[in-house]
Structures are given as C-alpha cells and as structure tokens.
Amino acid sequence: MMVRVISVLFAVLTAISNGTASVLQRRAAATVPDSDVLHVSLIGKLLRQRVWLAGIAMVLVAAACQAVALATGPIAVVQPIFVIELPATLLLAGHLFKVRLGARIWTGVVAVTLGLALGMASAAPGGGTERAHGLTWLPVLVVTGLFEALVLGLALSTRGNPRAALLGLAAACGYALTAALMKDALARLEDGGGLAALFSSWQLYGTAVAGVGALFLLQNALQAGSLAASQPMLTLGDALISIVYGVVLFGEHLRTGWWLVPELAGAAMIAAGVAELARSPLAQGAVSRAKT
How far apart are CA 247 and CA 219, in angstroms? Predict the structure, then answer.
C-alpha cells in the first residue's frame, strides 16, 4: 500500500511540474514566428530565453518524479494521473499572465479532478509485470512509428489550432512511449543487474531519444496554437496511449463488466471538464500571443 501511495504522490508531482513547464515554455514559444515550425532553428531561438530554460529545468524535475512513480507503480496507474496537468497548466497560466480565473475554470478543474478519481477507483488499474513481454516491443514500435508519421503528416497540412492539436497528440504519443521505455529500463536496475544492466539496455537510450523527440514536438505544438488546442490532446492522449502500452507491453489490466459504467462516467466527467476549461477566456486566448 505504501508503495502505491508513493507512486501516486510522485505522479501528481510530475503532473504539476509538467504543467509549470508547459506554461513557461508556452510563454517563450509564443514569441517565435511560424516560419520556424518543425525546424531546428526553433530550439536555437528558445535556448536564448531564460523563461524557456526555466521550463526545461521543470521538465527535468518532472522526469525525476516520473521515474520514481514508474519504478513503484504500474504505468496504467501513473500516466492517467497526468490528466490533472491540464487544470494545473491553466491555473498556473492564469497566475503567470495575471488573468482572472472565473467560475468556468474552477468548474472544469473540479470536473476533471472528480472524473479522474471516479475513473481510477472504478478501473483499479494494476497487475502486470515490471518488464515488457518478450518481443512485444517490435510490433509496438512499428505501430507507434506509423501512427506518428500519420499524425505529423496531417499536422503539416494544416495551420493554427488544428496543427497545435495534432502536434500535441504526436507529443503525447512520444511521452507515453518514453514512459513505457523508462519503466522497462528501470526494471533492469531493480532486477539486481545494477547500473551495468541499466546502461546496457537499449530501452534506456530509447527513453532519451523518445523523450527528446516528444519535447521537440511539444515545443512546436505550443508555438503553433493556443493551450486550449495543444494541452488537452497532450494530456488526454498521454493517459490513453499509456494505458494501451501498459496492457500490451506489461500485461496490466483494468476492471471490465459493470465497472465500465462508472469508468465511462468518470471519462465523461473528464471530457466535460476539459471542454469547460477549453472554453474559458484564458484558454481561448485571453492571453495574447506575441509574434516576431
């Protein structure tokens, strides 16, 4: 029980840290012109901004918290908790950009929080193994690559908030993959192989590649449109795709049967809360985007 509490606690800390990072990175990315989208020059310009570097520092804090959470709990438990990242992001954005938080935002925050609690209590995700089963990584990586290629292709064919939403989904898939790879890599350390087993596993280096790729996609999502477009796709996409990874790779399970009723009710509350947050003046663009 104590191990599960630690896992949930660090998952919550991860969500808060990621929310803070998103706000700081969004403030920096909004100053970059559209011509830099999906170019390395975007990162070069962001590196010259202190607020973006502060956001990266929070990303590192989040990564450390996520590692602890994944090492002590199933991925199907840890990643869905990140749904609270969206409310945290908007609350922090309101404070940073000095925008008054109205009833709509608070209603959305409550709905997302209660929906997450109901969904997690009903689904009771758990079980599974610490390491991925056999060669299941191969088809998972192939399908993930095809999915990312499709989403990026669609993103490049549009602009504005639709592009931000698609890039947010692509980043979500990248972060979910990063979490799955990280969990598998950490299992080598826990198996008694020590640091040698950890650093000799391809999953560790896969974690770094997937994490950097997801971070790059996130910067482009934040630059392309509003938080209302990118953050819901990032947050919800990460949670749902992570559950799929947990079931396919680690054999984790969710309750089914009549439990699907409260699970769907929780999901509906989360969806309603996210929609409410997305319609709030803050998320709709009350904060103007500076462009150079």
Answer: 29
